[in-house]
């Protein structure tokens, strides 16, 4: 018996030309949503990201979504429920829903895909990021600490998406692995 979790039969094939996708500066990560939920019947979304050492997220919890990070270049450090793990190019880390987690760039720079399952949360990047008018492959923004008032603004967008910021990043910002 087939589950009716998503409606993949109503989805048309989709080709995406990366240079046509809007890029956002989101917490000093460059992000572009390569596939949104409408292209996958809601089953997943795919976000391409780049960042330099010092880019990191606060600790947070998603009620619905799991995030899987596929590292193409560089390294990420994932943190979930108190345990950290280094993930280098050619590897991935899966951070499940309903578990407190965070991640950071752990090399001079990193390029990675984030698979969000199920789709929907990808709207957060456009809602809270700043359109970036330079090429995705170009110079990376210089990261800095996220001001407390910015966290409050992020939480206003996160709450309807079922995500809660639970604390500051659990990382030393500029330590490269």
Describe how the helices and strands are arranged.
Blueprint (H helix, E strand, L loop, with lengths): L23 E3 L2 E7 L9 E8 L6 E4 L3 E8 L1 E6 L2 E6 L3 E4 L5 E5 L3 E9 L5 H6 L1 E2 L16 H11 L4 E5 L10
Antiparallel strand pairs: 1-2, 1-11, 2-3, 3-10, 4-12, 5-8, 5-10, 6-7, 6-9
Structural class: mainly beta
Low-confidence stretches: none
Element string (H = helix, E = strand): EEEEEEEEEEHEHE
What is the general shape?
Answer: globular
Which key phrases capture this entry?
globular, 12 strands, three-stranded antiparallel sheet, mainly beta, 177 residues, seven-stranded antiparallel sheet
Please describe what this structure looks like.
With 177 residues, this protein is mainly beta. It has 2 helices and 12 strands. It has helices spanning 123-128, 148-158, and strands at residues 24-26, 29-35, 45-52, 59-62, 66-73, 75-80, 83-88, 92-95, 101-105, 109-117, 130-131, 163-167. The strands form 3 sheets. A 7-stranded antiparallel beta sheet has the order 8-5-10-3-2-1-11. A 3-stranded antiparallel beta sheet has the order 7-6-9, with no helix packed on it. It has a two-stranded antiparallel sheet with strand order 4-12. It is globular and about 45 Å long.
Could you write a compact summary of the structure shown?
The protein has 177 residues and is mainly beta.
